[in-house]
Amino acid sequence: MIEAQLHSPRPRFRTATRVAIVGAGFSGTMLALNLLEQADVEVLLIERDRHRMGAGVAYSSSETSHLLNVRAGNMSAFPDRPDHFCEWLAARGLGCEAAFVTRATYGLYLRETLAGALERHGRRLKLIDDEVLDIEERDGQVTLGLVNGGLIEADRAALAIGNLPPHDPPAIAGTGLPAHRYIGDPWATPFEQGLDSDATVLVIGTGLTAIDVILRLVANDFSGPIVALSRRGLRPHRHVDGLPRPKPVLAKPAPELSDLVRWARHGSATQDWRLVVDSIRPITQMMWASADAAKRARFLRHLRPFWDVHRHRLAPEVAGRIDALAASGQLSFRAGKISHVAVEGDALSVEWRPRGERTIVVTRAARMINCTGPQGDLLRSSDPLVKHMLRAGRIRPDALRLGLDIDREGHVLDSGGRASEHILAIGPMTRGDLWEVVAVPDIRIQVSALARRLVNAHWTAGEGL
Prior knowledge:
Radius of gyration: 23 Å
Order of helices and strands: HEHEHHEEEEEEEHEHHHHHEEEEHEEHH
Mean pLDDT: 90
Helix content: 25-40%
Low-confidence stretches: 1-8, 457-465
């Protein structure tokens, strides 16, 4: 796929006057706002769930226990206005310095920012409550087909579809477990409802999604045992207050993954490991881009779980709550692999093998919740737009099945490796090309750059965007 991308014809990039954005979570909303402020362009922001308009899944949570995993001081929606979120908080009497605010608060910030743009640019911004089923290119434009039967035409379409729901683990896929026993997508189902307060809950996964689910269970007065199970049993580490700013590393510190691990361990011997990990953030995308497919695959296979728990950390308050639950015995983290699941009376009988052991452990759980986190394999997606565009050959998965295959300017590649002239992608589904593009600080840079290219850039053969 990489070779096909390198040789695919580069699309002519003309200034857009009408842009349709599919998805109004953080990525789509920020692209819309950047476009409106950059030029006199018409923006159509399309979202199938009106309740998530402006905030998306990530910031629609109403749980007060769900905090941002990044300090408020680094959560401005705009890369060129780093104090924008802090000023918004200050106007409401809320502090910012080193604060980890609730995701609900951040969702309100995004909605109010979008509402302000609608007041200022109402003539050029249209919010559309509908679902896109297909996107076609014809006559130098795109045509988007909607669920309600309507059609939208635009110069460009930007896919800001966010993360795909989690895939069922292999031992569970196709088993047809009862929906009230097995929750396949915790963001789409009120998993805490109808659950006895002292029942046993098995959480599949030990990352950030699992932490959110555990906190939501406890916030709803659940007092029963919670077992969190993953292959390695690793859970996210915590942020630490009072650390100095990391000194950015501006050049690749090591050529091989093993050398990089040794470099990080050496640096951690003289300073907090968080500073070491954060120091390479400015070049993470560059390092990923310079790695070949084999090296990327080795990283995902061997280092990704360790990268995730060190790179994507918990607010100190959240980490303290999780530590307290573990110390009380209500919460336990386990490392192992599920081998079989069956319905047994009023519970699920889950057989799993602890990591490094041969014996099988059986856990009876009243409810099992899939917290393996968002996935990116388009071929396993049930999303109607993704399925339709795949069948039509207008998009394809990236080589590692992390998301959409795109070129370096964000154009989606079709089944033959040709770059689309009018359809682009932003946000987490472009991680195959960028890797670090799931957090606000990374996405806001991506959407700002794309907005500038869409409304200002012209190029001819031999010129950059």
